[in-house]
Amino acid sequence: MIDSIKTNLKAGLETALSAQFNKPISVIVEEPKRPNQGDISIPVFAIAKAIDLSLPETVVTIKDVIKTSGLAEMIADISTTGGFINLFLNKAIIAKGVFEAFADDEENYGSTNTGTGKTVCIDYSSPNIAKPFSIGHLRSTIIGAAIGNLYEKCGFTVVRINHLGDFGTQFGKIIYAYQHFGNEELVKKDPINELVKLYVEFHELVKTNPEMDNEARRIFKELEQGNPEYVTLWNWFREVSLADYMKVYELLNVKFDSYNGEAFYNDKMQPIIDELAAKGLLKEDQGAMIVDLGEQLPPALIQKSDGSTLYITRDLAALFYRKQTYHFSRCLYVVGNEQKLHFEQLKAVVKKMGYNYYDEFEHVNFGLVLQDGKKMSTRKGKVVKLIDVLNEAIDLSKQHIEEKNPELKNKDEIAQKIGVSAIIFNDLKNYRANDFEFDLEDMVKFEGQTGPYLQYTSVRITSILAADQFQYDGDIDFELMAHDIFFDIIKTAGDYAKTIEKATKEASPSLLAKYLLNLAALFNSLYGKERIAVSDMRERKTKEHLLYLIRSILNDGMRILGMQTIEKM
Questions:
Q1: Which of 126, 148, 158, 286 has the fewest CB atoms inside 10 Å of its own CB, making it the most exposed?
Q2: Is the pTM here over 0.90, yes or no?
Q3: Cα separation of 141 and 146, whole Å?
Q4: In this structure, are 82 and 129 located in the same domain?
Q5: What is the C-alpha radius of gyration for the chain, rounded to an integer number of angstroms?
Q6: What three-state secondary structure class fits 335?
């Protein structure tokens, strides 16, 4: 709300002053350095110099423009300190504006229309078929899902893509292993673990039987060429793996529009290679085909000397397919920091090919999940499976519930919502590009900067409103809301749309997570200082309207982050 006032004030002053002095005038509108100096500050020195008036004359001129503008009723007082004009806003009117904006479209409060008519593709999660869904895929999955929700909140059409790792020479090895020492019933019973066992057993045996490697390469080459027997097995491995991954996606409440993985682009790469050759971009280097990217980047390896393709070839095919199919205005790849060079090369190749949308796709990078300062990829020599971590968080949450509220109904269901949400929030509250420490005990606590703290704040508000059978009707004492203890919350609530827009633009869910923590802290501070159930019914209902607004924003923000909201805990 205040942000839009600043934007409108800046535009109004620039238009009026530029017309009055017949030259373009730039105006800065900012927040004062000290809160007691007002809500909005306008530096005057540069304006005085531009319009060639003394400082006092410039102050009078600007004040006259403000007083005759459409924003005059928003301003309670104007003062001058040094070379600054400081505006004190009419807090009651601001409060009224925030509540009216909320009441106009409660369910969509904070939404914007910046993405209307635009499509964004988001490539995230992307586990490797026939391998466990490990903790390593946690960040891509959670960050990608939250970014998709942010874009939807801003009016974009979002295409969520799970670019499965479902192709490569490892499938020749797994098919060989399954045909020679695999068991159909064991694979059906425990597909991922059994396929991993077969893969490990192949690598053990190949040490003394090197000819197995040649056989695996032959099988994979025939798989690429469409050998029906191998394609049938590959399809089966893919289906059982995906069915196993769906258990994780269901727990996380993550969905996709496309599961087209690497294999989908197998027949779409040769046209890319032909186009690169036709445009004179392919060069031979020791039998391999490369695109020279100049001095700033290493060359992009497009095709190995044996004719096989690489990730960048598939990513080129995928990018062109997505542009032609979805007509995206943005295409995001939620992939770890270590892939920075790969996406720089991809962008450079697309630019060299002459496509102007080379700047429409972006690498949304993220750091590592650490435990005791080390990469959390293994535990006692074994891969850390995400499903195990999620179940552990759920069990810990249930223990907390048993301690705090043993009579609670539906404890298992609520523990699941708390535990899974705790893991999601703990990830998203950290800036995505940074590594972060994974401490399950800390993240499921009901206090501190945790997901359960946000959920508990919402539950506490629900309990207060339910006790009074509160109904939102807009009967609010806005003068009461002008008091600082309430107005700090009003200002924060009015910043919700701005926060959503910034978090979307920067592909940074942590901005929203931190905003929600601040809003929850403001409520809990208010609750510790102010009685809600006072005898004056108008004051009581006004406070309850504010609590209802806070809860609505908290619940919507948690939904965007991928968390579950609850009514009791």
A1: 286
A2: yes
A3: 9
A4: no
A5: 29
A6: strand
Give pLDDT tens digits for 305-357: 877 777 899 999 999 999 999 999 999 999 999 999 999 999 999 999 999 99
- Specify the DSSP element, H or E, that contains 365: strand 361-366
Buried b / exposed e over 65-74, threshold 16 CB at 10 Å, is: bbeebebeeb
Tokens linked to 297: 């980047």
Domains held by the chain: number: 3
Do 422 and 548 sit in the same domain of this protein?
Answer: yes
pLDDT in tens, 174-219: 999 999 999 999 999 999 999 999 999 999 999 999 999 999 989 9
- CATH code for the domain of 410: 1.10.730.10
Find all residues with CB under 8 Å of 487, minimum gap 6, and list them. Answer: 91, 94, 95, 481
d(CA 150, CA 258): 19
In a domain, 241, yes or no: yes
Distance CA 465, CA 545 (A): 9
User: Is residue 499's pLDDT more than 80?
Assistant: yes
Tokens found for residue 50: 């531009």
Q: How far apart are CA 47 and CA 49, in angstroms?
A: 5
Within-domain flag for 277: no
Distances in whole angstroms, Cα of residue 466 to Cα of each of 255, 437, 477, 548: 33, 38, 21, 11
Q: How far apart are CA 320 and CA 325, in angstroms?
A: 8
